[in-house]
Amino acid sequence: MANGSDPGAPHTMTGPLEGLVVADFTQLAQGPFATQMLGDMGAEIVKIEPPKGDWMRHWSMANLYIGGEGASFLSFNRNKRSLTLDLKHPAGRDVALRIVDRADVVIENFRPGVMERLGLGYETLAARNPRLIYCASSGWGQTGPYVKRPGQDLLAQAVSGIGYLNGNADDPPQGVAVGLADFTAGFHIVYGVLAALYGRERTGTGQRVDVNLLNSIMNLHIQELSLYLNGAGLPQRSNSDIPGAYLGAPYGFYATSDGYIAISMNPIDKLAALVGVAGYEDCHESQVMEGRDRVRADFAGAFVNRTTQEWLDLLLAEDIWCAPVNDFAAVERDPQVAENEMIVEWEHPTAGRVRGVGIPVKFGGTPGAITRPAPLRGEHTDELLREFGGYSDEEIAALREQGALGS
Q1: Model pLDDT for residues 347-368, shown as the tens digit of each residue
Q2: What would the pLDDT profile of 255-297 be if each residue is shown by its tens digit?
Q3: Residues whose CB is less than 8 angstroms from the CB of residue 114 and which lie 6 or more positions away in sequence, other chains included
Q4: H/E element, 354
Q5: CATH number belonging to domain 2-220+336-402
């Protein structure tokens, strides 16, 4: 396990959210990413899955399965316990209600109206547990013309306008290569839940929190959209790989003799002198908008003359803002990544050794830890029913025979 945990030792909670109980009805990416973060910080995550399991158990990016377990599912579901419930079965619904009665937080990312149809909507749950924080995360929001549409990361990217910020002027709009809307929504879920918990400390009562992919990704390009809304005009992409429609040269990635280097905001005259580009001695600003493609071409012709490391040695010594452009193999070897403990590994009962991204936020007094791998489907059903529902072995056997827990 990461952080020195022994996978054979009894499970112990850790982290600043120790004692917080989250009833997790989420699937796919945005919700499980959020509940994993809460679990990394010590919360008890009770993952309530349908009988066939989280949708992500049956789909993985790159079609990669490790010991039969989808790599994408493993990425989003550590530090959780799983039980399977048929929420359409009356007895399954009753089990869910018992668990929610013990929970501090409910998080779900069904389409709007699904939890209400299951008899598990906010009003029902809050009436039973007034201190409950209920977070609903959807694609588009709880009301409005898109409410019945499928909500997914790429679709939210498309509607939000972010596709027109990437690529060159003659290229079609481009989606971002990571689940930007999903992950941003996950962060919004976490900060919304934590803010509501703080509010509960002051008022004694919980509340509903609503998050959606569209709002989350629009908040991510708050600067660019604000520029447009305040007179900057529609974003005009460059013809030379400048990575931002409202950004000037020489900002961007440049090919070196053996790789690539990133150049951020720097006094152009200083940078030009160091890399050997003439004609910029009186250019004291840090970016040029008019004629930016020509400026970029001038600098591109210079950077190919040395290796990435040679440029880093020269430019960092002069306090130039620059960095290597790492592929994933280089990320794995990067000394700062290692120092930050951001590549970690743990044992999974069927997948074996699993490697992944570490816990990004560090706490001095109550550090988070990876104490559980992603659970097998329904792995903890019986123990969670006993612990949170008060069910006896005979009652659990009856629930299973009735089909309330799935097969």
Answers
A1: 999 999 999 999 998 989 999 9
A2: 999 999 999 999 999 999 999 999 999 999 999 999 999 999 9
A3: 108
A4: strand 352-357
A5: 3.40.50.10540
What pLDDT, on the 0 to 100 scale, is given for residue 92? 97
Distance CA(295)–CA(29), nearest Å, equals 41
Residue with tokens 């066939």, as numbered in its chain:
52
Query: Which contiguous run of DSSP H or E holds residue 184?
Result: helix 180-203
Domains in the chain: boundaries: 2-220+336-402, 260-324
Candidate list 86, 104, 153, 182, residue with the active-site label: 182
182 belongs to the catalytic site: yes
Tokens of residue 313, six digits: 């040695």
> Do the Cβ atoms of 74 and 375 come closer than 8 Å?
no
Burial class (CB in 10 A: 0-12, 13-18, 19+), 105: buried
Give yes or no for a contact between 266 and 299, defined as CB atoms under 8 angstroms apart: no
Structure token digits, residue 276: 């050997």
Spatial separation of the C-alpha atoms in residues 92 and 120, rounded to whole Å: 11
Closest CA to 46 of 88, 79, 1: 79
pTM value is 0.90
Q: Are strands 44-49 and 21-24 parallel, antiparallel or unpaired?
A: parallel
Q: Which residues are paired to 88 by β-bridges? A: none
Phi, psi of 288 (to 5 degrees): -120, 125
